[in-house]
Write a structure and sequence with these properties.
Structural class: mainly alpha
Shape: globular
Strand content: under 5%
Radius of gyration: 16 Å
Distance between the termini: 24 Å
Helix content: over 70%
Length: 179
């Protein structure tokens, strides 16, 4: 694909996400969160998925806060040299993709995302999660994002492995018709 020759690095964040899911499945939660944080440094999409990962691995409010702080500290450690030299450039890079999005679309996505995360948090079970549940919960906010924002086809490289997993493992081929 010629996009990678000109600096498009979507495949790297996709690798980080899929590797994180594998680590979550093996119950190696902290390395999985680290990979998602590294993926977020490439593109901001994993920022939507980190809270979902934290919800899945947290068994209490204390765990939720501990994991959230851990991700924040790792992110700040990685970003510290850039924040020290030019904080404005870092903020412009983080907020660049949302600069041209209409307010209605941004607000619609934000409301949908907050409702999804809130529902996921309040209705979570104390039992162990399955990989299928995590993949579905990672896919929903990405599809919500793609529905409300203007994205190019190359962004679907992030959601395609998740959709393939859901469709093949769960035998839910109808999901492609839904999308």
């Amino acid at each position: 694909h010629s996009g990678y020759a000109v600096g498009q690095s979507d495949i790297i964040q996709t690798f980080c996400l899929i590797a994180a899911v594998v680590l979550f499945e093996k119950k190696k939660n902290m390395p999985a969160l680290l990979l998602m944080t590294v993926g977020m440094l490439i593109k901001m999409f994993p920022l939507m998925l980190i809270p979902i990962g934290i919800i899945f691995i947290s068994r209490s409010i204390k765990d939720f806060v501990k994991h959230g702080v851990w991700v924040w500290v790792i992110l700040m450690i990685i970003l510290a040299p850039f924040l020290g030299s030019s904080p404005r450039a870092v903020m412009d890079a983080i907020l660049f993709s949302s600069a041209s999005i209409p307010t209605f679309r941004s607000l619609s996505f934000l409301i949908g995302y907050v409702l999804f995360i809130s529902g996921l948090y309040f209705f979570r079970r104390k039992t162990s999660y399955s990989t299928s549940q995590m993949m579905i919960c990672f896919t929903i906010p990405l599809l919500l994002f793609f529905a409300f924002y203007t994205v190019t086809l190359r962004y679907f490289i992030l959601v395609t492995p998740l959709l393939i997993y859901i469709a093949t493992l769960e035998k839910r081929f109808w999901i492609y018709n839904l999308i």
